[in-house]
Fold this protein.
Amino acid sequence: MEFHLDGIVDDTKVKISFCIKEDIADDGSRSAWPQGSSLLSILVAGKYCIYRKRYQCPAGFTSGDVFWDDEDTWNSNRLGGTLPDGTYNTNTWIYFCCKTDGDEDNPILLPSKSPFFLLAYKSAKCQMVKWAVATLEWIYFDTEDWNNQDQADGAYPHDAGKPPPTVYYCYYRGCNETLTEVRGTFQSPNYPGKYPNGQYCSWRIMVNVTPHIHLTFTNFSLQNESNTDALYVYDGENATGEVLGVYHGSNPPPLGGIYSTTNHMFVIFKSDNQTGSYTGFNASYYGVNKPGKCS
């Protein structure tokens, strides 16, 4: 099941459009959705919801539903095309599949090449997803004012079962870049504005024409505590390389910059889901022939 949400929201109506994958013929070659009854589930468990389709949820998810008692007066609800499981008439009854066994602050791995949505579960916080930037959005639905019959059962998105309902959508865009030019720049999400909470981004720097990389920062502003927001710099192609430094507000990168011992460097930026983010960083890198000298 794959969903993309788009639509129109104004003071008088809400129009939501879905793109739904129904053909499962090629799913045998796809990676399984993070789930489980094994050690893997401990590593990928999270808190989020998706829309249900074909009357069943992926393994490891809990099914739930909400019933929205829409306005009776001047009701113009209408539908078309393929929709998530539910009943859509003068009222709305819609089903969800929710992951309930994890922590929003523990990043899970989902395909992030194309943008996608998840729905927040239990709180107005987005599940951290590796290599994706999350933006929290919400829609408030004005259901029936008199003798309201809104109700919910099982697992469902945060506040979707509270009359009147609000649904919190988390919009994800990939943030795992590969940089191959001899020199370049990269920044924390939203720079020079404050970076969002709950981010997990990476930059893989690969300079083929020089043997070393020099990384410098023109601005660096993160939380002071090492266990909150931090920048990790590795000597090599990925996080298995030697750690060149872990930097945060009270331990910024050295003014002279950071040098790799090879022509590869890997950088990870992680922000927690707590409030109080900062402006982040603006970084520049250069391919160099010798540590301490720019090419």
Remarks:
- The first helix runs from residue 39 to 44.
